[in-house]
Design brief:
The complex is a heterodimer of chains A (about 110) and B (about 110). Chain A is mostly beta strands and about 110 residues long. Chain A has strands spanning about 5, 10-15, 20-25, 30-35, 45-50, 55-60, 60-65, 70-75, 85-90, 100, 105-110. Chain A is built from no helices and 11 strands. In chain A, the strands form 2 sheets. In chain A, strands 2, 4, 5, 9, 10 and 11 form a 6-stranded mixed sheet that branches. Chain A has a 5-stranded antiparallel sheet with strand order 1-3-8-7-6, with no helix packed on it. With about 110 residues, chain B is mainly β. Chain B is about 0% helix and about 50% strand. Chain B has no helices and 11 strands. Chain B has strands spanning about 5, 10-15, 20-25, 30-40, 40-50, 55, 65, 75-80, 85-95, 105, 110-114. The radius of gyration of chain B is 13 Å and the shape is globular. The chains are: A mainly beta (about 110), B mainly beta (about 110). At the A-B interface, strand 4, strand 5, strand 9 and strand 10 of A face strand 4, strand 5, strand 9 and strand 10 of B.
Amino acid sequence: SQQGEEDPQALSIQEGENATMNCSYKTSINNLQWYRQNSGRGLVHLILIRSNEREKHSGRLRVTLDTSKKSSSLLITASRAADTASYFCATSTSNDYKLSFGAGTTVTVRA
Amino acid sequence: EAQVTQNPRYLITVTGKKLTVTCSQNMNHEYMSWYRQDPGLGLRQIYYSMNVEVTDKGDVPEGYKVSRKEKRNFPLILESPSPNQTSLYFCASRGGSVNTGELFFGEGSRLTVL
């Protein structure tokens, strides 16, 4: 069953704008990861945030985690056409070795 | 170059004709996994393997088999494919621990069962 659910399902923005997407999950987690998928390609890992962390940065990416609300957000600043992709959150719980993925947010960056 | 390689990338087959999708990784990862991706459903785990000769079911294992005889290879076997197994399949591997390891994905295998 899906643990994480992304919101919105789709997002269209102008180049240079920021893109924000959210992920909500149901049970306590060990860590939460974000992945990017370009059309028809394999997923690529972007960033991992542990359950005891609240915010993490990587280049133009900023991830927050609120374990009390069981939610995370991914912010892409100063978006580029190359950021057009689907973005997935994935959660890992302490007792299993699975990563559970959400259905993803499709981001379109218009030139 | 570190990579996960899947073959074939595209396959059209008919109901009941056994097929195998191969997966190989060159990163010496212990953990490997198969996912299927369907529109609106995200990625769902089929099987995973913690190490050689250790495999376990994921969320949607019905109709699939796997084996892990060598560390680098983790083939996915469809003994008698059916149309509902038409999907995009991904193999992934991970080094490190559950708490720190990112997944490395192959490029995917698009399977159509007629």
